[in-house]
Amino acid sequence: MAETSKRRSCVLSDEDIQCLVESDSEQSLPDSDFDSENELDDHALMDAAGNEGSDEDNSANQEFVWEDMENYRGQREHFTGSAGAQGPAKDVTEIVDIFELFFDKELIETIVAETNRYAEQFLRGREPSARSHSKAWKPVTEGEIYVVLGLFMLMGIVQKPTLQSYFTTKGVISTPGYRDIITGDRLELICK
Asked: What pLDDT, on the 0 to 100 scale, is given for residue 170?
């Protein structure tokens, strides 16, 4: 049985449904040879045609028309809730306390456990080469994870092209502070 690939374009309007079938070849199949996918498409089109009676469906079937914004009149939303921080964040004023609302102790413990587990799995059964930084791996601590998260936030302010460029000592592109907190190799290992 020869098959042809067909592409269907359907235009739904208020008055009728037009289905255009474009065939990639001149052969056509008898109706009984359609595969089940085409039959499902046909049934879906018939269902769409049968639902033309409701106003809701008619509005969905109408073609969208772009308009310019000159005649647009927006409606102002009326906020009815209470403004400001809610729940446990209501009385928090210290930046560290706000940070800990998002990164609580449980989340940090999970990050530490999963980072250490991944490193253990990665190193298991491997003998790192002499030049590999992974030879220096030691389990990460909660304090280091706080440092890494803090540095990531700072990297959003001081943007550089690579992770190692934050730790360079080369003159004009040097950024003091990063090297004083953690080494570039350690940060790279933790991120790996």
From this structure: 87
